[in-house]
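FAQ: What does the model actually see?

It sees only this:
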Amino acid sequence: MPPGVSSRDVSVRATDSNESAERHLISIVVPSHNEGENIRALRDEIASALANEPLSFELIVVDDSTDDTWRVIEQLSKADGRVSGVRLARRFGQQAALVAGFRFARGAAVVTMDADLQHPPSLIPELVKRWREGAPVVHTQRLDADETAGIQRVTSRWFYKIFSGLTGVAMNEGAGEFRLLDRRVVDYIVRMTEGEVFIRGVVSWLGFPSVTVPFRAAPRHAGQTAYSFKRRWRMAATAIISFSILPLRIGMVIGFGTAAISFLYLLYALIVRLRGGAPPGWASIVSVTAFLFGVQFVLIGLLGEYIGRIHLATKQRPPFVVDRTTGAAREGSATSSAALTD
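And it is asked to produce this:
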């Protein structure tokens, strides 16, 4: 060691050097379900898009596939040190896969995107530019939403309107999982203890300043989407229930309303009876009774949904279970495993 230089000075300089390297590292987290045909092309396009940028990147592919996608990830990881893999024990869903990727991400900012190349890697430099200009959250907005299939377009549009109206959390139509998040934002999400996380809503709820970059989606590179209507419906229900109790309050208003209708109908029947007449026929009675019971069953189902989620939350099960890792993610396995139990 040179004279006059203490071990503490060397340690501080090494720490500063490491922090400087971290500031120039961008993590790209990609959830993958049976996307083995797309992973190589995705890596190539990301590398090409960032070739002239003064930063390095790591690609973290979180796999919950049933095909040979993991084999492809392992091969890429051995050939390219920038590629890491995290394999989940089973299919926990896209949102859980994203949180798993956040646990292993080391960069100063994290980009999330799909594996099918519909989210253009060529847009990443623009997201990084906006982040460097001071935006901790850089959203993207898909401009070609109107060109998607009819039923998907209608349900998507109404979901964003209903979600924003019920929760008070603004979300633009065409929003998705293609975005850039500053390290601070990612750390907040990782520390959340919710069983099911709707990341789009959480990012908006956190309230960090944001900007939006529009883009047009490219055609899917290969394979078929596994995001069925059933999964979309489940995500929509999770999003609304996770962020608002307004449905319960609406249910209470409906309950008071139907109780008032029932009381008025009973009053009408008593008046007719006191005048010596008889209530109308069974058809009207059965109709009103069926209506009231239907409303009650809907409200009971709504209460059951909330109570069921409370029941699952009390179990404190982790949102995902990691089966194995590869690449740089393997080095962070111990830290991430510890974080799961914190």
